[in-house]
Protein backbone atom coordinates (compact mmCIF):
# COMPACT_ATOMS: atom_id res chain seq x y z
CA UNK A 1 0.00 0.00 0.00
CA UNK A 2 1.35 3.40 -0.98
CA UNK A 3 0.81 5.86 1.87
CA UNK A 4 1.68 9.03 -0.05
CA UNK A 5 1.36 8.45 -3.80
CA UNK A 6 1.73 11.39 -6.14
CA UNK A 7 2.96 12.35 -9.59
CA UNK A 8 5.84 14.28 -8.01
CA UNK A 9 7.37 11.11 -6.51
CA UNK A 10 10.92 10.58 -7.78
CA UNK A 11 11.74 7.36 -5.95
CA UNK A 12 10.05 4.76 -3.78
CA UNK A 13 10.84 3.05 -0.49
CA UNK A 14 9.07 -0.30 -0.02
CA UNK A 15 8.91 -1.37 3.63
CA UNK A 16 8.43 -4.92 4.99
CA UNK A 17 7.34 -5.19 8.66
CA UNK A 18 8.53 -7.40 11.50
CA UNK A 19 6.86 -10.60 12.69
CA UNK A 20 3.33 -9.81 13.82
CA UNK A 21 3.66 -6.32 12.35
CA UNK A 22 1.66 -4.53 9.72
CA UNK A 23 2.16 -1.90 7.05
CA UNK A 24 1.15 0.68 9.64
CA UNK A 25 4.43 0.04 11.47
CA UNK A 26 5.99 2.49 9.03
CA UNK A 27 3.67 5.46 9.61
CA UNK A 28 6.52 7.38 11.34
CA UNK A 29 8.54 7.10 8.11
CA UNK A 30 5.60 8.38 6.08
CA UNK A 31 5.12 11.40 8.31
CA UNK A 32 8.80 12.33 8.07
CA UNK A 33 9.31 11.45 4.39
CA UNK A 34 10.85 14.26 2.32
CA UNK A 35 9.12 15.51 -0.85
CA UNK A 36 9.58 13.14 -3.74
CA UNK A 37 9.81 9.96 -1.64
CA UNK A 38 6.86 7.58 -1.94
CA UNK A 39 6.64 5.16 1.01
CA UNK A 40 4.96 1.81 0.41
CA UNK A 41 4.09 -0.46 3.32
CA UNK A 42 3.76 -4.17 2.57
CA UNK A 43 0.73 -5.73 4.23
CA UNK A 44 1.05 -9.46 4.73
CA UNK A 45 -2.11 -11.59 4.24
CA UNK A 46 -4.26 -12.37 7.25
CA UNK A 47 -4.06 -9.02 9.05
CA UNK A 48 -5.80 -5.65 9.11
CA UNK A 49 -7.49 -4.96 5.75
CA UNK A 50 -6.24 -8.33 4.44
CA UNK A 51 -7.53 -10.26 7.45
CA UNK A 52 -10.03 -12.25 5.37
CA UNK A 53 -7.23 -13.66 3.18
CA UNK A 54 -5.52 -16.92 4.16
CA UNK A 55 -2.33 -16.31 6.11
CA UNK A 56 0.97 -17.32 4.54
CA UNK A 57 3.33 -18.94 7.05
CA UNK A 58 6.22 -19.13 4.61
CA UNK A 59 8.92 -16.53 3.89
CA UNK A 60 9.19 -17.51 0.24
CA UNK A 61 5.41 -17.39 -0.18
CA UNK A 62 5.26 -13.90 1.34
CA UNK A 63 8.02 -12.81 -1.02
CA UNK A 64 6.22 -14.15 -4.09
CA UNK A 65 3.07 -12.23 -3.17
CA UNK A 66 5.00 -9.03 -2.57
CA UNK A 67 6.99 -9.34 -5.79
CA UNK A 68 3.85 -9.86 -7.86
CA UNK A 69 2.22 -6.80 -6.29
CA UNK A 70 5.29 -4.62 -6.86
CA UNK A 71 5.58 -5.70 -10.49
CA UNK A 72 2.11 -4.24 -11.01
CA UNK A 73 3.17 -0.82 -9.70
CA UNK A 74 4.33 1.99 -11.97
CA UNK A 75 8.02 1.98 -12.76
CA UNK A 76 9.96 4.15 -10.30
CA UNK A 77 13.47 3.88 -8.82
CA UNK A 78 12.85 1.67 -5.80
CA UNK A 79 14.73 0.89 -2.61
CA UNK A 80 13.55 -1.90 -0.31
CA UNK A 81 13.66 -1.90 3.50
CA UNK A 82 12.80 -4.86 5.70
CA UNK A 83 12.89 -4.97 9.47
CA UNK A 84 13.45 -8.16 11.52
CA UNK A 85 11.47 -10.94 9.76
CA UNK A 86 10.72 -8.35 7.10
CA UNK A 87 14.42 -8.21 6.19
CA UNK A 88 14.29 -11.84 5.10
CA UNK A 89 11.05 -11.34 3.16
CA UNK A 90 12.58 -8.23 1.55
CA UNK A 91 15.74 -10.14 0.62
CA UNK A 92 13.77 -12.91 -1.09
CA UNK A 93 11.48 -10.37 -2.77
CA UNK A 94 14.44 -8.51 -4.26
CA UNK A 95 15.82 -11.79 -5.60
CA UNK A 96 12.52 -12.48 -7.36
CA UNK A 97 12.28 -8.95 -8.74
CA UNK A 98 15.80 -9.20 -10.13
CA UNK A 99 14.74 -12.27 -12.08
CA UNK A 100 11.52 -10.76 -13.42
CA UNK A 101 12.46 -7.10 -13.86
CA UNK A 102 16.22 -6.48 -13.68
CA UNK A 103 17.00 -3.02 -12.36
CA UNK A 104 13.65 -2.68 -10.57
CA UNK A 105 15.39 -2.34 -7.19
CA UNK A 106 18.31 0.00 -6.59
CA UNK A 107 19.17 -0.76 -2.93
CA UNK A 108 18.29 -3.18 -0.15
CA UNK A 109 18.23 -2.12 3.51
CA UNK A 110 18.18 -5.11 5.89
CA UNK A 111 17.30 -4.01 9.41
CA UNK A 112 17.31 -5.81 12.75
CA UNK A 113 17.83 -9.32 11.38
CA UNK A 114 20.43 -12.04 11.27
CA UNK A 115 21.61 -12.91 7.77
CA UNK A 116 19.71 -15.53 5.73
CA UNK A 117 22.63 -17.96 6.03
CA UNK A 118 22.31 -17.84 9.82
CA UNK A 119 18.86 -19.44 9.75
CA UNK A 120 19.73 -23.08 10.35
CA UNK A 121 16.41 -24.38 11.61
CA UNK A 122 17.38 -24.68 15.27
CA UNK A 123 13.87 -23.64 16.34
CA UNK A 124 11.22 -26.02 15.02
CA UNK A 125 7.71 -24.70 14.29
CA UNK A 126 6.08 -26.80 17.03
CA UNK A 127 8.12 -25.04 19.67
CA UNK A 128 6.52 -21.66 19.08
CA UNK A 129 3.74 -21.81 21.64
CA UNK A 130 1.96 -18.62 22.68
CA UNK A 131 3.99 -18.61 25.87
CA UNK A 132 7.26 -18.78 23.98
CA UNK A 133 6.15 -16.05 21.57
CA UNK A 134 5.29 -13.77 24.49
CA UNK A 135 8.66 -14.50 26.11
CA UNK A 136 10.37 -13.66 22.83
CA UNK A 137 8.53 -10.35 22.59
CA UNK A 138 9.41 -9.51 26.19
CA UNK A 139 13.09 -10.09 25.42
CA UNK A 140 12.98 -7.66 22.51
CA UNK A 141 11.68 -4.73 24.57
CA UNK A 142 10.25 -1.56 23.04
CA UNK A 143 7.33 -2.40 20.76
CA UNK A 144 7.29 -5.92 22.16
CA UNK A 145 6.78 -4.68 25.71
CA UNK A 146 3.98 -2.34 24.63
CA UNK A 147 2.18 -5.16 22.84
CA UNK A 148 2.44 -7.49 25.85
CA UNK A 149 0.99 -4.81 28.13
CA UNK A 150 -2.05 -4.43 25.84
CA UNK A 151 -4.04 -7.61 26.48
CA UNK A 152 -6.60 -6.98 23.75
CA UNK A 153 -3.95 -5.99 21.23
CA UNK A 154 -1.86 -9.05 22.06
CA UNK A 155 -4.86 -11.35 21.69
CA UNK A 156 -5.63 -9.96 18.23
CA UNK A 157 -1.94 -10.10 17.18
CA UNK A 158 -1.23 -13.67 18.30
CA UNK A 159 -2.61 -15.43 15.18
CA UNK A 160 -0.32 -13.40 12.92
CA UNK A 161 2.59 -13.88 15.32
CA UNK A 162 2.10 -17.66 15.28
CA UNK A 163 2.15 -17.72 11.48
CA UNK A 164 5.18 -15.45 11.27
CA UNK A 165 7.22 -17.40 13.81
CA UNK A 166 6.39 -20.62 11.99
CA UNK A 167 7.59 -18.96 8.79
CA UNK A 168 10.84 -17.93 10.47
CA UNK A 169 11.43 -21.39 11.91
CA UNK A 170 10.89 -23.05 8.53
CA UNK A 171 12.89 -20.56 6.45
CA UNK A 172 15.85 -21.83 4.45
CA UNK A 173 17.55 -19.67 1.83
CA UNK A 174 18.72 -21.25 -1.39
CA UNK A 175 22.41 -22.25 -1.27
CA UNK A 176 24.52 -19.20 -2.05
CA UNK A 177 21.46 -16.91 -2.16
CA UNK A 178 22.42 -13.31 -2.90
CA UNK A 179 21.16 -10.14 -4.50
CA UNK A 180 22.83 -8.06 -7.15
CA UNK A 181 22.11 -4.66 -5.61
CA UNK A 182 23.97 -2.70 -2.93
CA UNK A 183 23.09 -3.90 0.56
CA UNK A 184 23.09 -1.79 3.72
CA UNK A 185 22.53 -3.54 7.05
CA UNK A 186 20.98 -1.52 9.88
CA UNK A 187 21.39 -2.67 13.48
CA UNK A 188 20.61 -1.40 16.96
CA UNK A 189 23.59 -1.18 19.26
CA UNK A 190 21.68 -2.91 22.09
CA UNK A 191 19.68 -5.35 19.97
CA UNK A 192 19.79 -8.73 21.76
CA UNK A 193 18.92 -10.70 18.60
CA UNK A 194 20.78 -9.04 15.72
CA UNK A 195 23.40 -6.65 17.03
CA UNK A 196 26.51 -5.11 15.45
CA UNK A 197 28.46 -8.35 15.82
CA UNK A 198 26.07 -10.01 13.34
CA UNK A 199 26.00 -7.33 10.63
CA UNK A 200 28.95 -8.63 8.58
CA UNK A 201 27.22 -12.01 8.16
CA UNK A 202 25.10 -10.35 5.48
CA UNK A 203 28.05 -9.43 3.25
CA UNK A 204 28.18 -12.72 1.28
CA UNK A 205 24.54 -12.16 0.31
CA UNK A 206 25.25 -9.39 -2.19
CA UNK A 207 27.33 -9.18 -5.35
CA UNK A 208 27.39 -5.37 -5.06
CA UNK A 209 28.51 -2.85 -2.45
CA UNK A 210 28.02 -3.69 1.22
CA UNK A 211 28.01 -1.55 4.33
CA UNK A 212 26.31 -1.39 7.71
CA UNK A 213 25.15 1.31 10.08
CA UNK A 214 24.80 1.05 13.85
CA UNK A 215 22.03 3.06 15.52
CA UNK A 216 21.39 3.68 19.20
CA UNK A 217 18.66 1.49 20.64
CA UNK A 218 17.45 -2.08 20.83
CA UNK A 219 15.61 -4.31 18.39
CA UNK A 220 13.05 -1.65 17.45
CA UNK A 221 15.62 1.11 17.03
CA UNK A 222 14.01 2.35 13.80
CA UNK A 223 11.20 3.99 15.77
CA UNK A 224 13.67 6.33 17.49
CA UNK A 225 15.90 7.04 14.48
CA UNK A 226 13.48 7.95 11.68
CA UNK A 227 15.23 11.14 10.55
CA UNK A 228 18.64 9.46 10.44
CA UNK A 229 17.22 6.50 8.50
CA UNK A 230 15.59 8.75 5.91
CA UNK A 231 18.84 10.68 5.47
CA UNK A 232 20.62 7.40 4.82
CA UNK A 233 18.00 6.30 2.30
CA UNK A 234 18.23 9.63 0.49
CA UNK A 235 22.03 9.46 0.30
CA UNK A 236 21.98 5.87 -1.00
CA UNK A 237 19.36 6.71 -3.61
CA UNK A 238 21.26 9.67 -5.10
Automatic annotation (TrEMBL):
It comes from the Bacteria. One of its GO terms (biological process) is lipid biosynthetic process. It holds the Pfam family Thioesterase. Residues 12-231 form the Thioesterase domain. PANTHER family: S-ACYL FATTY ACID SYNTHASE THIOESTERASE, MEDIUM CHAIN, THIOESTERASE. Belongs to the thioesterase family. This is Thioesterase. It comes from Streptomyces atratus. The lineage of its organism: Bacteria, Bacillati, Actinomycetota, Actinomycetes, Kitasatosporales.
